[in-house]
Amino acid sequence: MLVNDPATAHYVIDPARVDLAEEFRRNPKGPHSAELMKVLHRMRWSGEGGRFVLITLDPGRRWMLGKLPGIRGVPVESFANRIYTDITEAEWDVFRIRWKAITGQELPE
Amino acid sequence: MNTTEVLGYAWPLVVSAGEEIAFHLSSPTLRAAEARLMRVRCGDPDPAGPGLKLDDMGSAVDGQVALHHQPIHPGSFASVDGVPALGSFSFGVFLWPTRPGQDARSIAAMEGWRFGLGADGVLELAVRSATLRATRPLIEREWVFVCASYDAATGTLAVAQQSLDPQGGRDRSEAATGKAAPGLTCAGTLTLARGFDGKLDRPRLYAAALDAGTARALSEALVPPSGDPRLIAAWDFSIDQHGDVARDLSAQQLHAKLHQMPTRAVTGANWDGRSQAWTEVPWQYGAIHFHSDDMADCDWSPDLTLRIPDDWRSGFYALRLCAHTGSEPVESFVPFFLRARQPKAKLAFVAATATFLAYANSALRLDQVHAESMLEGLIVLSRDDVYLQEHRELGLSTYDTHSDGSGWCWSTAKRPILNMRPRGNTFNYVNDTHILDWLEHEGFDYDIVTDEDIHREGARLLAPYACVITGSHPEYFSKQMLDAFDAYQRAGGRHMYLGGNGFYWRIAFHPTLPATMEIRRGMGGLRTWEGEAGEHNLMFTGEPSALWRHNGRPPQRLVGVGFDAQVFDRSAAYRRLPDSFDPRAAFIFEGIGPDDPIGEKGLRGGGAAGLEVDRADATLGSSPNLLLVATADRLGTGGLPAPEELRTLHRGFGGEENARVRADMIFTPTANGGAVFATGSIAWACALSCDGYTNSAARVTGNVLRRFLDPAPFDGFES
To answer: A47 — contact with chain B (CB < 8 Å)?
Structure first.
């Protein structure tokens, strides 16, 4: 049985490469540099730090941050204090959370 | 906006004017809702597009409708009524458990006894208050023969398990005995596999306490001696694979009723790989794969019925249900399709009901770790998705896996389908309504025909139409559907394919059950699960499934282009190619300059060429007369080719470096004045409304449609 394994994303993110985080913040939708694409693949495939999602509050206008539980039937966790009117802000928030989870180091706001 | 506080399904899913339709509704909290019957013009609430557009039909069911809660009971199993009184008994079966150790699971049970797996995956037999347990848990996805017996004379209980492959640590063979009260009897209904995940092969019930060797011999025998009076039942799951009855070969004829459509036509313990088709070696396909989350039929009672007025136009329709839960408004839709009973327009639009069913209640973005990487950004969930995460009893789509990891290979419409209705997720149904909206805006009259009607009625359903449009993503096609389109084109029909990744998977509709389709994904193609070896033929029909490309009929053969890549990060515009300046193609580009991009705007990724895209290829069947009039072949790093596009692995296959990652726009004449125009992109449909419907994609679509409705032949091509 062929299955996807989230643990297979093993690219090592260098916490000193804050320039890659800055590139993402400037241009979250890409295209991205080859190095940043590897960072994003590690984050998005592995889900380290949380498999975050956006819950639509008003289609095309307003979203709330959520987190998938990874177990069928268990409700999506939602974060009522994280409401966005711009998806790129949410992308940056999640990027920062995952950067911290993977590298152990905080990114500046 | 709450979209799920009341849910429902319409039956039948496809209806004709003059016929009756029933709405089966349920709400756990609401006691009433305001119902209105709507014709759907655009089902997409995206504020960047046309927005929701629904025409209020004014129907006899409009008004307050009382609601009640109707639960859903998922999980396939078999039941056998009328089992004669048993004192001593034995039950044996080959077993392939797929979730041992998750919860207690029943293999077989009657009033008074239960044979199954404990929560630790250990075999156990409970007779009244006595329980006998083995010691070694069964291994996931390993065949094992298991049996249980009760001797009414002595009260002796016995269980045994015999691993079919005893090597490398897989041997879990053992036997155990215990005691219960003697003299017990049972009768009535037997259930098989209730709550169980995995396969059962050749179950046998015997009115005597047999030793394990004898019980196994009974199961090894394809046809046990039916004259043995102690043989109560010997079920042969290889008979009538599409049906909901499992045949008993014994004299008792204790046929089993199958509930919630377990997966049949799966390999048995005796499958030896000599054939991949159950039709060729049916005796090796005597197993059924049961799933504790199978859901084929909610079996809800109807709450509203409506005779569709004779003068209603065909179309996408939905019952809108409005209410409030607390201060939050509720708006939930129950979709159905009104077919044109008699052709009224020259143009037909195909409601892709096979594809809608294939995607019905897709939890792909909830369950599959590749989703965020594939979509190149945070997953945006609708309220429907949030509900589905919590309410798996609705049953999932053919993109999903069951809770045991096996692929979900069929789908039905006797259940609420959250993504086939207005406000649903932006794929398939909602995207297709952008084409309907554009047709309405432009004033084109059209009829709706559905996939399933084409499947059942063939080319004669299409024949009256001068032009037929297939929408944004007609991905799932049966042989009958493909044959119908082929015949339509050969007879001079004109086909506009305004989508991407169409005509890709080979499926079948159930021979008798409406709105029920099946896919086996096989081991090729862009697939979210992979079939088990030997399980690639459809239980409904016996036909091979998987890709049409691997069945000798690539999409290019029918519509000139076929799926080559997906590109979810951004969509692109097409550029004109030399063939677009051929006088025979001039009608397509009226009002378009030689250097003008086509589809440079769009609601999905900012262009008309994106999401999933197709390319022409003569080696896959694109016709010699084909004019490759435009292409979008600079799709960037987000453009990734389909697996079947790669013969070997190498660098450079992404869209930045690989021109085979592209969307091609083509025009090709067919026989007898027919023609095909294809855009090869899912995103096309959602580009039509940009700039007040005055954009280049809309212009090209209009140019082609007007010409395709004109019966004048396309001259200048070799036949």
So the answer is: yes
Q: Are B436 and B55 in contact (CB under 8 A)?
A: no
Interface predicted TM-score (ipTM) = 0.98
Q: Identify which of B45, B378, B638 has the shortest CB distance to residue A90.
A: B378
**Mean pLDDT across the stretch B193-202?**
98
Q: Are A28 and B377 an interchain contact pair (Cβ–Cβ within 8 Å)?
A: yes
pLDDT 10s digits, B465-479: 999 999 999 999 999
**What Rg value do the Cα atoms of chain B yield, rounded?**
28
Q: If residue B403 lies in a helix (H) or strand (E), which one and from where to where?
A: none
- Beta strands B328-339; B14-16: pairing state: parallel
Nearest one of B646, B631, B711, B642 to B678, comparing CA atoms: B631
Distance between CA atoms of residues B707 and B590, nearest Å? 11
Verdict on whether the full-model pTM lies above 0.90: yes
Q: What is the dihedral of CA B183, B186, B191, B192, to 10 degrees?
A: 30
Which residue does chain B place closest to A77, by CA atoms? B386
- For residue B425, what pLDDT is reported? 86
Residue B675, beta-bridge partner list: B494, B669
Structure tokens at A38: 């590897």
Tokens representing B286? Answer: 């005597």
Q: How far apart are CA B283 and CA B213, in angstroms?
A: 21
What's the average model confidence in pLDDT over B705-712?
98
Q: How confident is the model at residue B226 (pLDDT cuts 50, 70, 90)?
A: confident
Distance CA B624, CA B193 (A): 55
The partner residues of A66 in beta bridges, in order of sequence, read A53, A78
pLDDT confidence tier of residue A1, bands split at 50, 70 and 90: confident
Q: What burial letters (b/e) apply to B453-483, b meaning 16+ CB within 10 Å?
A: bbbbebbebbebbbbbbbbbbbbbbbbbbbb
Q: In this prediction, what percent of chain A has a pLDDT beyond 90?
A: 92
Contact B301, B4 (CB under 8 A): no
Q: What is the pLDDT of residue A57?
A: 95
**Pairing assessment for the beta strands B304-307 and B89-97 based on DSSP bridges:** unpaired
Which amino acid, residue B531?
A: G
Strands A77-84, B7-11: parallel, antiparallel or unpaired by DSSP?
unpaired
Split at pLDDT 50, 70, 90, the class of A109 is confident
Q: Which token pair is B180?
A: 């219960």
Any bridge partners for residue B173, and if so which?
none
Q: Test B378 with A52 for CB contact under 8 angstroms.
A: yes
DSSP-assigned beta bridge partners for residue B477: B506
SS3 B283: helix
Q: Which tokens go with A50?
A: 């949380």
In angstroms, the Cα distances linking B347 to B330, B350, B454, B706 are: 36, 10, 15, 10
B526: closest CA of chain A, how far (Å): 13
Contact predicate B130/B157, CB 8 Å? yes
Separation of alpha carbons B283 and B292, rounded Å: 26
* Predicted local distance difference test score (pLDDT) of residue B719: 74
d(CA B537, CA B534): 8
* Distance between start and end Cα atoms, chain B: 56
For chains A and B, count residue pairs whose Cβ atoms are closer than 8 Å.
97
Contact B245, B258 (CB under 8 A): yes
Q: Name the residue among B443, B490, B456, B485 with its Cα closest to residue B468.
A: B485
Residues of A in contact with B367 (CB under 8 A): 72
Sign of CA dihedral B629, B634, B640, B641: positive
Give the residue, B203 or B369, on which the prediction is more confident. Answer: B203
